[in-house]
Amino acid sequence: GFSVLFQGPLENAVRMLTIVAAYFAVFIPTMPFVFLLMAAIGWFIQVFQTLVGMPLWAIMHSIPGGDFIGGQQHGYFALVSLFFRPLIIVAGFFLAFELYDPIITLLVQGYFDMHLAIIISNSNHGFFAGLEMIFTWALHLLVLANLILGATYLVFGLIQELSDTTLEFMG
Tell me: the pLDDT tens digits for 129-146? Predict the structure, then answer.
């Protein structure tokens, strides 16, 4: 009877909820660390690139006129970028945390308002709206988890983006 009729949909809902739980318990909470770690690794790579390129920049300083293969400005930009990038990365990290709460609050409230409006507009009877809400809630939670994951990527991507775009203003 009842168990045979609802066994398949309940198993699917449990599978989807397991994925949603993984998003909320593992993927989303680790994003700030991942983005900060990637920015730090990028800075270390920049340090090694600068170590390789600086002898060439020093040679360019010994050439009179300073117009040999592009000039000397790029070396100064590389040094300034090397010293200021960690500060901008840390500022982006804290700025991302400040922006994250209002953005996620807006996203979640807007999503649940939209979800309720869809449920109400699709059925004329309160009973059927309730049934639809019960049978699709796992799918809607999966969509919400993907939206939050995307917003998390955008907000915490600011850690790397801020250092790149801020330093582009210099030259």
Answer: 666 777 778 888 889 999
Enumerate the H helices of the chain as residue ranges: 2-22, 28-61, 73-122, 126-156, 158-168
- pLDDT confidence bin for 59, thresholds 50/70/90: confident
Nearest alpha carbon to residue 105 among 63, 148, 154, 45: 148
pLDDT at 163 over 60: yes
How many Å apart are CA 66 and CA 34, to the nearest integer? 42
User: Which residue type does 68 have?
Assistant: F
Angle between helices 126-156 and 158-168 (to 10 degrees): 40
Which letter, b or e, does each residue of 110-138 get, where b requires 16 or more Cβ atoms within 10 Å of its Cβ?
Answer: ebeeebeeebeeeeeeeeebeeebeebeb
